[in-house]
UniProtKB/TrEMBL annotation:
Cellular component annotations (GO), alphabetically ordered: cytoplasm
Species, as recorded: Enhygromyxa salina
GO molecular function, one term: guanyl-nucleotide exchange factor activity
Listed Pfam families: RCC1 (PF00415), RCC1_2 (PF13540), WD40_RLD (PF25390)
Keywords for this protein: Guanine-nucleotide releasing factor, Repeat
Protein name in UniProt: BNR repeat domain protein
InterPro entries in the record: Ran_GTPase-activating (IPR051553), RCC1-like_dom (IPR058923), RCC1/BLIP-II (IPR009091), Reg_chr_condens (IPR000408)
Gene3D superfamilies found in the cross-reference section: Regulator of chromosome condensation 1/beta-lactamase-inhibitor protein II (2.130.10.30)
């Protein structure tokens, strides 16, 4: 970033010294480039950086394996080094590993890698010092893509040279050139932009682009965006697969590939048309491979997209340390998830292969990898599981149903919740005794229950609050009065079962009305040791229990909740403390899936994600505090199911990928310490 003083600040990846601070350490906060106080323009390549100085000299730093620093050698530099023989530059541009400068007299010089003719000097030889392009004396603009270069001429036309495999030279062919070639059918241009294998030119009212188009060559210019009579186009910037423009008013619009949020409209859907970004007036734009940044009119810098290497400048090395984020993180190395669950600071998923992966908190062995220490910011396989058909998680433990009908569990076992005598955590999968016909399993804090293939339910662990449902206060056995269950879900110390009839039966603790049977205040102190029916509910199609509240999706597509409501987690529009019978979730229709966390809930309704309740760590995916009614937040995800923890949320996508948001204190977002944000975030320390 160029400061008003002429100083330069940089952040992000620094493996080649491209931040100019004398080191090769990645920085998630801005650091000052050493020895620069008179810069007036910057140009950034793949792993090198250059600054145009007030005097007309140019200084570069970073990777120099192809001579792109112009220092007369191929020695990389972690601090600025002056380009040889250049003292009258007025504009600079950098490609992947080449650099060019427009001189005061309209000539252009280039240096660095020339394997595709991107230096335009009739050779394919690497140049470590500036080499002039013959016959070019009327340049007024200069841009560079990865392996090509383009110039805007005084006439309003454009010429390009270098690689052309995607048609990025705009001459109607895909043949590369080591000399300038005119872009076809372009006149009246006032500016150019290049990125990757694409080039665009713009007039005051229209943007035309050529080159790579969704992986395909597009060698002739075509119109892709318009301004308006009252708000023309002032600036255009390109990344390899996305673009942003700035209007005269300062409004910013972006379009293109958007899997990592680089378009900045709050979604992860690719955009074929320019989409407005909620930034306020903008003075300048800059785009990287998978991220975007803007200098706002208030002199604040905001960035969005992929934070790999600290590119978003958040100062948290990818959201480690518990920072809340409304941006979504894609779980790395997972694209075939078939089921997903979350506990307190960790998540697990089954794969198509039958394997299970877990990530996040592991102090009680909840990842099942045999270690029982530390945390994991990336998915790791659970030991010895290759045949999982169902999966569940409690606050600090998890269980899997195997193809055989057996159940294995791991994690905390202080109350016998893993089917063994209470004791130390079990860090590898351990079988639940006497259970070989399970279809599904659920876990509370200190107990577990299995749905048997017959429709009966078997529970084990603590029975201090009647959570085993056997009516006798023993330490395990078959739940009474229940033989037609089709699904189970547990809270802290209670469990609910969905019956074939659409009724829901619950048992266990009822101190917050979580049984849902309409109990009066005096009855809430007494645990319910045998199943009772949730009042006024006979059409449930999905159930989800939090620690002390629960929600259902009804057959008509509406949702209802009951129990604890101190954070608005029932979605009823109030924060009254307890509802002992169901209340409708406000404003939801056509619900396709619903899930509940410790103090929040989420649903997909009408194809849109909405969440409500606690949002203290961004687990609701929207900006602001707790919400008592559903609020739209994260969008652009094709969600098959949710898994909600205490302060994070994960979604299994129909593609098999998993996306998470909220707290990342224990690496529970599974992004390997990397963050992506689909909304602009202010850069830390600027």
């Amino acid at each position: 970033m160029l400061r008003e003083s002429g100083g330069v600040s940089c952040w992000g990846a620094n493996g080649a010294g491209q931040l100019g601070d004398g080191t090769t350490v990645d920085r998630s906060k801005p650091v000052t480039v050493q020895g620069l106080g008179d810069a007036k323009q910057l140009a950034l390549g793949r792993s090198h950086s250059c600054a145009l100085r007030v005097s007309g000299a140019v200084s570069c730093w970073g990777d120099n394996q192809r001579g792109q620093l112009g220092s007369g050698n191929e020695i990389s530099a972690t601090r600025p080094s002056q380009v040889r023989g250049l003292s009258d530059a007025k504009l600079i541009a950098a490609g992947e590993d080449h650099t060019c400068a427009l001189r005061l007299n309209g000539a252009v010089v280039c240096w660095g890698n020339n394997s595709d003719g991107q230096l335009g000097n009739l050779t394919r030889k690497t140049w470590t010092e500036p080499a002039q392009i013959r016959g070019l004396v009327d340049a007024i603009g200069l841009v560079a893509g990865d392996r090509h270069t383009c110039v805007l001429r005084k006439t309003g036309g454009a010429i390009c040279w270098g690689a052309n495999d995607k048609g990025q030279l705009g001459d109607g062919t895909t043949t590369g050139h080591d000399r300038p070639s005119a872009v076809t059918d372009m006149s009246g241009l006032i500016g150019l932009a290049a990125g990757g294998a694409r080039t665009c030119g713009f007039t005051a009212q229209s943007v035309y682009c050529w080159g790579e188009d969704d992986g395909r060559p597009s060698p002739r210019p075509r119109k892709v965006a318009d301004g308006s009579q009252n708000d023309g186009i002032a600036e255009l910037e390109l990344g390899p697969a996305h673009a942003c423009l700035r209007h005269d008013s300062g409004t910013a619009r972006c379009w293109g590939q958007n899997r990592d949020g680089r378009v900045g409209d709050g979604s992860f859907e690719s955009k074929g048309r320019a989409t407005s970004i909620k930034l306020g007036p903008v003075r300048d734009l800059a785009l990287g491979d998978r991220f975007s940044c803007a200098l706002r009119a208030d002199n604040k810098v905001a960035c969005w997209g992929d934070d790999a290497g600290g590119a978003l400048g958040q100062g948290d090395d990818g959201n480690e340390g518990g920072a809340a984020r409304t941006g979504v993180q894609r779980v790395v190395n997972l694209d075939d998830a078939t089921a997903l669950v979350s506990g307190d600071g960790f998540s697990c998923a089954t794969r198509k292969t039958g394997a299970v992966l877990c990530w996040g908190r592991n102090d009680l062995g909840q990842l099942g990898d045999g270690s029982g220490d530390g945390s994991r910011a990336m998915p790791a396989p659970v030991a010895n599981i290759t045949d999982a058909v169902a999966l569940t998680a409690g606050p600090a433990q998890a269980c899997v149903v195997r193809k055989s009908g057996g159940v294995v569990c791991w994690g905390a076992n202080d109350m016998g919740q893993l089917g063994r005598s209470p004791g130390a955590p079990i860090v590898k999968p351990s079988a639940i005794p006497k259970l070989d016909d399970a279809a599904a399993v659920t876990l509370g804090d200190g107990h577990g229950c299995a749905l048997r293939r017959s429709g009966s339910v078997y529970c084990w662990g603590s029975d201090a609050e009647g959570q085993l449902g056997d009516g006798a206060g023993t330490r395990g056995g078959t739940v009474v009065q229940l033989s037609d269950a089709v699904a189970l879900s547990s809270g802290r110390a209670h469990t609910c079962a969905l019956r074939r009839t659409g009724e829901v039966m619950c048992w266990g603790a009822n101190n917050q009305g979580q049984i849902g049977n309409g109990a009066g205040a005096a009855q809430l102190k007494t645990p319910v040791q045998a199943p009772v029916t949730v009042a006024n509910l006979n059409d449930a199609s999905e159930i989800a229990m939090g620690p002390e509240h629960g929600c259902v999706r009804r057959r008509d597509g509406k949702a209802a909740c009951w129990g604890r409501n101190d954070a608005g987690q029932l979605g009823s529009g109030t924060e009254s403390s307890v509802w002992t019978s169901r209340v409708p979730v406000q404003g939801l229709a056509a619900v396709s899936t619903i899930a509940v966390g410790s103090g929040h809930a989420c649903a997909v309704a009408g194809g849109r994600i909405s969440c409500w309740g606690d949002n203290g760590s961004g687990q609701g995916g929207y900006v602001g505090g707790a919400a008592t009614t559903p609020r739209p937040g994260v969008q652009g995800l094709d969600v098959a199911s949710f898994a909600l923890g205490r302060d994070h949320t994960c979604a299994r996508l129909r593609s098999g990928e998993v996306a998470c948001w909220g707290s990342n204190e224990h690496g529970q977002l599974g992004d390997g310490g990397r963050m992506v944000s689909a909304i602009p975030l202010e850069v830390s320390g600027l």
